[in-house]
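Tokenise the fold.
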Amino acid sequence: MVKNFSKHSLKHRIAKEIRKLIFEGKLNQGEKITESQISQDLGVSRTSVREAMLQLELEGLLVSSPYKETKIATISQEEVLELLIPMRVHIETFALKKGFLNWDEKTKEHFKVIIENMKKAVRFEDISTFIELDIEFHELIVTSSDLESVIQIWESIVHRIRLHFLYQNSKSGTLQKWLTEHEELAQVLMSGTSIDEAVSALRNHIVETNIPDVYLLE
């Protein structure tokens, strides 16, 4: 862990470090986490750790009860099937409809770069990097809409999406399959010929790349 923090944005720096440990799989779902241990590991005050942990609770990454222990958040099949997937479909397809016709070559080049980096992650069997690229791919669709309200809704659930990808994909281990699915979607999106075709492809991608493996979640 990083032990030298400046006083500036200390809470955010601590939160970033804990977040990194979660998404790298070094802190597991349901695992207990304490202010005292984090404070000792990072060499910072417990007050700053407490503030960081409260931020992570708001992000849905930690769960705590008054006067009880704090744990790394879990994610259920029910949440994924009934909440996350439907929300993603609505958010991403709405953003796509609003932004698709205004995409420029810079946006399309960004998709190409993500796909190339995904290929590298597959080559090195780097699942954590692939997950971040997966998030970046879909986030590009959202942010390219230039709709602040839509972007804010996405940001409110993106860490739960990351947990979903982390816990489900680490068990399925089908990187090449995910790469192929994103390549196919990117091809449709970058062709720019039909917004209806693009929306249909995106909706099918979100559903069909997740539901077959959702049983892997506990």
About this structure: The chain has a mean pLDDT of 92. The chain has nine helices and three strands.
